Amino acid sequence: MDDFGNSRMPNYTLVNAQATYQVSNNAEAYIRFENVFDADFQISAGYASAGRSAYVGLRAKF
């Protein structure tokens, strides 16, 4: 514990990945993965983090 009563959090490694594909001059598709290896970690004591997540989408410019 430090002087403020906070506990030290253990170290962790977080791996994220993303890829994009240019569909046209004005649009691209993307996929993004967060916490690829489903690491268990906490940024603040007592508050769990999200597990493995995936996002897919399309970005367009008009």
UniProtKB/TrEMBL annotation:
Signal peptide: none annotated. It is found in: Cell outer membrane. It comes from the Bacteria. PROSITE patterns: TONB_DEPENDENT_REC_2, TONB_DEPENDENT_REC_3. Gene3D superfamilies: TonB-dependent receptor, beta-barrel domain (2.40.170.20). Its main location: membrane. The keyword Transferase does not apply. Coiled coil: none annotated. Keywords: Cell outer membrane, Membrane, Receptor, Transmembrane, Transmembrane beta strand, Transport. The keyword Methyltransferase does not apply. A motif (TonB C-terminal box) lies at residues 45-62. InterPro entries: Beta-barrel_TonB_sf (IPR036942), TonB-dep_rcpt-like (IPR039426), TonB_rcpt_CS (IPR010917). It is a multi-pass membrane protein. Belongs to the TonB-dependent receptor family. This is TonB-dependent receptor. The lineage of its organism: Bacteria, Pseudomonadati, Pseudomonadota, Alphaproteobacteria, Rhodobacterales.
